[in-house]
Amino acid sequence: MRVLVVNAGSSSLKLSLLDAEDSELWSSELAAPRALVDPEAVGATLRELPDVPYVAGHRIVHGGGRFREAVVIDEQVEAALRDLVALAPLHQAKSLAALDAVARALPNVPAVACFDTAFHATLPPEAATYALPRAWRERYGVHRYGFHGLSHAYAARAAGKARRVVTCHLGAGASLCAVLEGRSVDTTMGFTPLEGLVMATRCGSVDPGLLLWLLQHEDLGVDEMADALEHESGLLGLAGTADMRELAARDDPDSDLAIGVYVHRLRAGIGAMAAALGGLDALVFTGGVGENAVRIRELACEGLSHLGVGAPESRVRVLVVHAREDLEIARQARALLGVQGLEHL
């Protein structure tokens, strides 16, 4: 079953065609800044496909409380996905724009939505619930959704039979996940992808009282604050660049501080995930920074010796796994259609 994987990321749209053995038959990457997807460019690119796919598997960032696993996209599902745009305006809008563009170019190819939030649908109530007024939680559905689930799911399976696994997805966006016997039981991102670790341009967790103070005492609007938290914070806000490679090559106080803050939050987060698991059997690094920034991995592990990481006698495995959300999307699409059958689409 050939699967066209459609992965709308933070700055690009990645398209790849995988055969039944997950060999890549074709791939292309288009620029897609913010929520912009050029349907004409997508159509022209898909005309280069060497063969027609049986199904298109789409990465959809937010499934809300309804979508807890992959689903075939029909008019009702698409309408429900559009209702979720407010929860992740930049990411969801881009995914839906890609869905429209691919459907226009390949109208007879069924589409499957694979959700970044779905892997975290197994979070226990104590991990998913915010200590906020009941009225807010019930009226607005406010709770911790978690993200990067496709990457965490793939990385956790790469750890083999390890029972207690912490997966570290470190890219432009970054999050951790505590995986117990294949199930997500805690994660660092929450209601939005802003919570948790320091990222390329996102702040990660900050005191909400600080944000209220800025709104109350400074001449800041909500939109200005949202843009700053999403696009002007993180490594960029600390050192003037969002590129970890550039930071590692520089020798100046701002770069040292940025790396120090990044690693401090990373170590603390890994420790918290290990606590949620009651111990640690495997620590997995994935994503652009997780795979390529050797020094970041070393610094993180140096601070985790109390968990047995890095000790010669330790049974904790430290793995580096190439991020393959495309394989996870293809796996979910095939599994779904294997149950439903193409004749029902």
Walk me through the topology.
Layout (H helix, E strand, L loop, with lengths): L2 E6 L3 E7 L5 E8 L7 H8 L8 E6 L10 E2 L2 H9 L5 H17 L5 E5 L9 H4 L5 H7 L8 H10 L5 E7 L3 E7 L2 E5 L20 H10 L4 H10 L2 H6 L4 H6 L3 H25 L4 E5 H6 L1 H9 L14 E4 L4 H16 L5
Parallel strand pairs: 1-4, 4-6, 7-10, 10-11
Antiparallel strand pairs: 1-2, 2-3, 5-6, 7-8, 8-9
Helix pairs in contact: 1-3, 6-14, 11-13
What does this structure look like?
With 345 residues, this protein is an alpha/beta fold. The chain has two domains: 3-115, 2-Layer Sandwich (Nucleotidyltransferase, domain 5), CATH 3.30.420; 160-320, 2-Layer Sandwich (Nucleotidyltransferase, domain 5), CATH 3.30.420. 41% of the residues lie in helices and 18% in strands. It has helices at 39-46, 75-83, 89-105, 125-128, 134-140, 149-158, 208-217, 222-231, 234-239, 244-249, 253-277, 287-292, 294-302, 325-340; strands spanning 3-8, 12-18, 24-31, 55-60, 71-72, 111-115, 164-170, 174-180, 183-187, 282-286, 317-320. The strands form two sheets. It has a six-stranded mixed β-sheet, with helices on both faces. Helix 1 crosses helix 3 and helix 6 packs across helix 14. The longest helix is centred in the C-terminal third of the chain and has 25 residues, at 253-277. The mean pLDDT is 94.
Features:
345 residues; alpha/beta; Nucleotidyltransferase, domain 5; 2 domains; five-stranded mixed sheet; 14 helices
Number of helices: 14
Number of domains: 2
Question: Distance between the terminal alpha carbons, to the nearest Å?
Answer: 15 Å
Share of β-strand residues: 15-25%
Secondary structure class reads: alpha/beta
CATH architecture of the largest domain: 2-Layer Sandwich
Low-confidence stretches: none
Largest sheet: 6 strands, mixed
> Could you give the count of β-strands?
11
Percent of residues in helices comes to 40-55%
Instruction: Examine the coordinates and then state which fold CATH places here, giving the name of the CATH topology of the largest domain.
Output: Nucleotidyltransferase, domain 5
**Outline, from the CA principal axes?**
globular
Report the top-level CATH class of the largest domain: Alpha Beta
